[in-house]
Automatic annotation (TrEMBL):
Record note on quaternary structure: Binds to the N-terminal domain of the chaperone ClpA.
Keywords for the protein's UniProt record, in alphabetical order: Hydrolase, Protease
Lineage, opening ranks: Bacteria, Pseudomonadati, Pseudomonadota, Gammaproteobacteria, Moraxellales
Protein name from the UniProt record: ATP-dependent Clp protease adapter protein ClpS
Organism: Agitococcus lubricus
GO biological process: protein catabolic process; proteolysis
Length: 103
């Protein structure tokens, strides 16, 4: 038991920066103004969801403040996040999303 605990501490201190470096979550945030059907369209168009899944995720964002729309390598996650923001701005909606390293 002591050995296991010590082992865990050693692993954590030796390799903190090697924890899942490859995948990033695109997190979509709630706001008070973007129409629900626009968010559903975004989730379908940029994250390949069907209408049922897109509606479910949109409602999760609406009720909980945010949700993960997809998980990708860093460059793809950042490109998708920027595309969503650009698309929302082109339609004059304040929809925001961000990229988080998966923990
Ligand atoms: N809260 C918005 C509304 O009531 C809908 C919404 C859902 C906005 C999800 C953004 O990411 C979002 N019209």
């Amino acid at each position: 038991q002591d050995d296991e605990g010590q082992h865990g501490v050693l692993l954590e201190t030796a390799k903190p920066q090697l924890k899942k470096p490859f995948f990033y979550q695109v997190v979509v945030l709630n706001d008070d103004y973007t129409p629900m059907d626009f968010v559903v369209e975004v989730l379908e168009q940029f994250f390949g969801m069907n209408i049922e899944k897109a509606t479910q995720i949109m409602l999760a964002i609406h009720h909980e403040g945010k949700a993960v729309a997809g998980v990708y390598p860093k460059d793809i996650a950042e490109t998708k996040a920027q595309q969503v923001i650009d698309f929302a701005r082109a339609h004059e909606h304040p929809l925001m999303c961000l990229v988080e390293q998966k923990s």
